[in-house]
Design goal:
The complex is a heterodimer. Chain A is mostly helical. Chain A is built from 18 helices and 2 strands. In chain A, α10 packs antiparallel against α12, α13 packs antiparallel against α15 and α15 runs antiparallel to α16. The N terminus of chain A is likely disordered. The chains are: A mainly alpha, B alpha+beta. Chain B: Its main location: membrane.
Amino acid sequence: MAVANVSAHDAASTHDDHDHEHHDNFITKYIFSTDHKMIAKQYLVSGIFWAFIGGFLSVLFRLQLGFPDMDMSFLKPILGGWIDATGKLDPTFYLALVTMHGTIMVFFVLTAGLSGTFSNFLIPLQIGARDMASGFMNMLSYWFFFLSGVIMFISLFLEKGPAGGGWVVYPPLSALEQAIPGSGMGMTLWLIAMVFFIASSLMGGINYITTVINLRTKGMSFSRLPLTIWAFFLTAVIGLLSFPVLFSAALLLVFDRSFGTSFYLADIYIGGEALPNTGGSAVLYQHLFWFLGHPEVYIVLLPALGITSEVIATNSRKPIFGYKAMIISMLGITILSFVVWAHHMFVSGLNPFLGSIFMFLTLIIAVPSAVKVFNYLTTLWRGNLRFTPAMLFSIGLVSFFISGGLTGIFLGNSAIDIQLHDTYFVVAHFHLVMGAASFFGMLAGVYHWFPKMFGRMLDEKLGYVHFWLTFVGVYLVFFPMHYIGIAGFPRRYYSWTNFSFADMYTDLNMFVSVAAIITFFAQFIFVFNFFYSMYKGRKASSNPWHSNTLEWTTPVVPGHGNWVGEIPTVYRWPYDYSKPGSKEDFIPQTVPLSATPESNLPHEAKLVQLEKEIMAEEGEVLVTNESKES
Amino acid sequence: MYGFLISIGVVLLIMVIWMVYRIQTLISVAKGSDKKIATTSNKVNAILFMVFLIGIGGWMVWYSVKEFHNYQLPIGSEHGIVTDRLFWITMAVTGFIFILTHILLFWFSYHYRYDEKRRAAFYPDNNKLEILWTLVPAVVLTVLVISGWKAWTDITGPAPDNAHVVEIMGYQFAWDVRYPGADQQLGNYDYRLTTATNSRGIDFTDKNAFDDFPSQSVVIPKGEPVLFNIRARDVLHSVFAPHMRLKMDAVPGMPTRFWFVPNKTTEEMRAELGDEEFEFEIACAEVCGNGHFSMRKVITVVEPEEYRKWFAEQTPFIKSNPDLVADLPVELKELAEIYINEE
């Protein structure tokens, strides 16, 4: 039905679009825009802004960890009272830095910046739709996110500091201001910001799901969707099912903090007084939190994997190996992501029997991840690889996904996790597999679709320099953390010198900090490239990567409604690269099978027949339509 | 002055980079190489992947071997030997996959770099391969899980009846230790009874509490089961004894436990490591506030005879501070006085 509607609507809408262009003023075009491409760019720029804030916070605490004796007075102009008279960083603020770094990176950069940018940008363009199902809701989604960001940003400047109980904000620490100053106003703002963030994610997610289900163009069946769209679709499903649970966790925490309830609080004596709360369970919060928290890992990772699949296939000039297996493994990851959350809680006082169950479930999820890696490797095998910056970042992603994924096998094993839990081994693990991998997915996406976003190319050479500095940098930062973790160094420590078992590796920590600072500054190359190329970059052609997917059939800079005239019909899957017999090494999705008899595979002969019948029917419809009009 | 010079240097550096960048852009436009695909850059990137594989890979292997004795913590408990063995078995398996997949990833990247004369192979799927690499990881993981599961159930199973009980209570920012005394029964506690002199909130109307005694460090016997009863008074903490391969959260309102068998005395460990200063330590592994990084407690492991001797010499709470039982009902107070006056 939807398909028929779209084509019937086309003729009229092209005319509308034309009108629209003239009515756009600055505010409707750049600020309160309902165009999915503009909203995507808004998300992207916000994501870049937050990535720099989050990265800068990490540089600050890496300075403390790498150079514990350093005089940090030179940071006084920025940090003010958080640097004491002797030039030392305040331990409370250290915890706040760690907390805000985590919150910002996980939610604002890798969730909003990644899904928000590429789901918005690519879903309509790659499935052949004029825009999102609800442009207005899409706009609201961005502005809720923006508001959330403003609130979180304000909390950075509070006198008592922002939230400081770690990004997981476990109560009772996060519920009691007596326990840590950040649990006062800072935590209140954190919770308010998260509520807006969750609302934003839900509105975005509903839109993505609806659009993918309802607005695919003619011929774009689910079995012809690019893997990017599959990934965004499943990501949105995960978000829709898990974010409300975080909302409930936050709501109960608000009640405990402000209205005297005892959902999470029990038997607490603090600041010289016994609190009246009894009967609550701190572990309940952890269950609710990780019911989102673990799927969240896949919310940030799946879009990156989707982007990588697309970029690797295009630049290997080869079909992605095992398209169906890729979809099945993503589905497997989606479903399993909901039943592994308690592996974050093996030593939280959880019933050990439950621990066993979650250990089994957790290690099952490693199987689809392994399948994905092997499929990527096979896609590269016997390819004809073009190392565009996007391709380099995608290969980097695969490397991080392997390195970080393998350490997950240690942590998912509850017996081994006893020792490794909350040590730097965990920090190394998730920064590689979820942090760096997703971040690389995001950068691959920016490099690959920049020409479609701004009609100009990013500079390749700068892209190469950016890639190599970042790739090597990330490994130099996070690989040594495995050693530190195996040696038992706990996380979120301001200093390790109080313990004789951890009073070593000052050299390694210094090394990590230097690598982190260099990697951070290497990102400025990207920012320069990004903003410079936006205005001064080389003009892009309409299909610079010789890619098959639909977005490259639009004008170089697509306007409102994306396609001038009718939305193209799709006749084949998106991965017909280097098909034997075909002259070019790519066949776009819009080329009918009947037009390429020389390269059709035996099983496609039947489809050609079917295609011809449909086209004949279409022809009749068109003829009748025309005769009606005249 | 230095700041000024440095900023001038930075500005000059940026200008140089800028010039180089502009020149290379202009050259590539002039040569028309910006239209080509099989460029030198493509080759350079392919080679860099091999350099990365050999360079960074070699550095990782070298450092892992060189530092082996540094990052591997000595083991102080029986189950620690089991979990460490599991750790290193997993390391062998994953290490093999890590190296293999990375060699493939970077070798393919290098070997199949773009060549105008070549065409990529059209190889969209192979179900046999997919099944193969679904089943192999599944089987390997099953083996790892089952051995991990066995260890986990042994470690988390109920403590033996003869285990020595030690109560460890976390609060901001230290640990308080309590022993059950001669009767081997810890007295009840109630957080509302917490005062400056009764930091653990011990309920002295419970007779079992009369002989309970505190200790500055956790003293435990070698070779005998020890049960930590763990609780927290204010926020979450986590008892982490790295040498014992022991970690368990301390949760307000929900007591937790962890039992283990220490297998080396502190003295033995000192001799073995040649480090006279060595101590087994407890740290906090769950963020709990400003002093999170300073919650140190020492565990002293001694020979069983020495432990019994030490245990018998300790002074109960009520003996060192008789005020604790001043308000008790008469009968209980009389009973308490027996403990207090005992020599």
